[in-house]
C-alpha cells in the first residue's frame, strides 16, 4: 500500500487484534540468541524493524527458523557470536542498533552496524557514552555520533562494571548497559530518572538472569542492578499484542460517540499503559480485563466506548510511558474540547522524523490551531477537521496517527508514501479498510 485514502466514518463497532509487541519481539529474538539452548517465540511481530533484528542475529551466526506465522525457533549460542561476513544492516530500527551495541560490546571482533537513510540521521551518543565507560570501543562514521556505528572489538577478557545514572529516561540505553553488564566482572547498575519500559528486566529474569530491582525513591528514580558475568538459559516466550499499535484504535473509538471497540490479547505492562491513563483523563470510557496479571508480561483485553473528550496536559514523568503514542495523542487533543498541552517531549525531535514539527504541520493542514514549542506543542481542540493531502515523512507513527485523524475529517484525507508502516504494523492498512467498510 503506497498511500492511505481516508474519509469520515460513523461509529466503530468491532473487535480488533493487534500484532505482537514490537519492543518485546526485538528483545525476545536477541535474548533467545544470547541464551544457551533452543527457544520458541510465538506472537512475534513480523515487521521490517523486528525482522532486522532477526537477520542481524543470523548474520552473527545464530540459527533462527521461521516455523509458522509469528513463530520463530532460535538455537541460542550462549553469547559465542561469530564475526559477520559484512556489515550488519539494522534497517530503520534504532532499537536493533542500540541494543546490539550493548549485546556486542564485549566481543573481540570488529562489527559495523549500518541502517537506512532515516536511521543514519539518529544519534547514538547516549548509548556510546556509558558503554565506552565500561571499556567498549566505538566509532561513528556519520558525524555527530550518527551511524554507521562501528564496534571496534574488545580485547579485554571482560568489560568493567558501571554504575550509571541516566540523564534522560531511555529503555534502550538502560537495556544496552544491562546487556553489556552481563559480560562485566562485578555489579553493573542503572538508575532511571523516571520510570521507562521494563521489558528488558522482565525478560532477562524470564531467561534466568538474576537482577536486583530497587523500589523508586522519593524522586521516582529506580535502581536496576546485575552481577556479571551471567548467562541466559533458553525458554519459550509468547509475545502479547502491542499496546502502541492498539493506541490508534483506542483514540479512534474514544473520540467517536457511539463506538464500541474491543482489543483482545494486548499487553498491559504498567510501563506501557500511559496511553490508557491519558485517554481516561481526557474522559474516555474503558473497561480493562486482565488475563493472569501476575505473568511476566501481563496482558488482557480493552473495551472502549466512544464519547466526548476534553483537553489535558501531558508531560513530566509520564512522557517515557507514552513517547511512542504522542503523535496519536496529539490527534486526540485535536478531537477534544479545549486545549491539550504536550511538554517535556524533546526526544520526539530525534525519532524517525522530527515528530513535533511533523504533527504540528499536519494538524495545521487539517485546520487545527497548534503552537509548536521546543519540547512539545499546544493544541486548540474542538475545531472541525478538514481533509487534506499530508506527508508522513517516512515515519510509521505519523502515517497511522493521521489516518486516524482522517476518520473524523470532512472530505478526503490522503497520506502519501505509507510504506514505512510496515516497520511496526504491517496489517494496519487492512484493519483501516475494514473499519472504513463497517
Brief write-up:
By secondary structure, this protein is α/β, with parallel strands linked by helices. It folds into two domains: 3-20 and 240-437, Alpha-beta prism (UDP-n-acetylglucosamine1-carboxyvinyl-transferase, Chain); 22-238, Enolpyruvate transferase domain (UDP-n-acetylglucosamine1-carboxyvinyl-transferase, Chain). It has helices spanning 22-34, 48-59, 94-103, 125-133, 171-181, 199-206, 243-255, 274-281, 319-322, 326-335, 355-365, 396-406, 428-437, and strands at residues 3-6, 13-17, 36-42, 63-68, 71-77, 88-89, 111-114, 138-140, 149-151, 163-165, 186-192, 211-213, 222-228, 237-238, 260-267, 285-291, 299-305, 313-314, 338-342, 370-373, 376-381, 389-390, 413-416.
Give the SSE layout:
Elements: E1 3-6, E2 13-17, H1 22-34, E3 36-42, H2 48-59, E4 63-68, E5 71-77, E6 88-89, H3 94-103, E7 111-114, H4 125-133, E8 138-140, E9 149-151, E10 163-165, H5 171-181, E11 186-192, H6 199-206, E12 211-213, E13 222-228, E14 237-238, H7 243-255, E15 260-267, H8 274-281, E16 285-291, E17 299-305, E18 313-314, H9 319-322, H10 326-335, E19 338-342, H11 355-365, E20 370-373, E21 376-381, E22 389-390, H12 396-406, E23 413-416, H13 428-437
Parallel strand pairs: 2-15, 3-14, 6-7, 10-11, 18-19, 22-23
Antiparallel strand pairs: 1-23, 3-5, 4-5, 7-9, 8-9, 11-13, 12-13, 15-17, 16-17, 19-21, 20-21
Helix pairs in contact: 1-2, 1-3, 1-6, 3-5, 4-5, 7-10, 7-12, 10-11, 10-12
